[in-house]
Design brief:
Elements (H helix, E strand, L loop, with lengths): L9 H11 L10 E6 L2 E6 L14 H20 L6 E9 L8 E10 L3 E9 L8 E8 L3
């Protein structure tokens, strides 16, 4: 199977996300840092409000970044399709995400006409110490 070719670069995806979510606070919104064939990298800057009791980044924060990363991955490869919607998100929490910038790496597992299936890995300490891994499916407008 041929690798999917991105239609947008990181700046293009960030601009599209800013247009789609005009009320989002720029300092709190994740940033796409890299787009490559079948892949994106996203970072969410650390803020103390992301912590849950126990001093680790909260599960809802990790789930939100996994979904945002998958959305950015889909947009990077299909272009201006803002009506792509999450149809499934399954996440496994592997260890507590320590305070720090939260990174996500998304990979397209399948890009079809109606569905995009993505694998997303999240970490704060390094990609060799994953905090969570998610499988996210997006329904594409037809």
């Amino acid at each position: 199977m041929a690798e999917p070719v991105p239609r947008l670069d990181a700046a293009g995806v960030n601009a599209l996300l800013a247009r789609a979510f005009p009320d989002a606070q720029p300092e709190a919104f994740p940033t796409v840092t890299r787009v490559a064939p079948g892949r994106v990298s996203v970072v969410s800057r650390y803020r103390p409000g992301l912590l849950r009791p126990g001093g680790v980044i909260s599960g809802p924060t990790l789930m939100s970044l996994a979904d945002t990363c998958a959305y950015a991955l889909v947009l990077a490869h299909v272009g201006d399709q803002l009506m792509a919607v999450t149809s499934q998100l399954n996440i496994s929490f592997l260890r507590g995400a320590q305070p720090g910038d939260l990174h996500a790496e998304g990979e397209l597992l399948r890009l079809g006409r109606r569905l995009a299936v993505c694998d997303v890995r999240l970490w704060t300490e390094g990609p060799d110490r994953l905090a969570a891994q998610a499988n996210v499916t997006y329904a594409l407008p037809g």
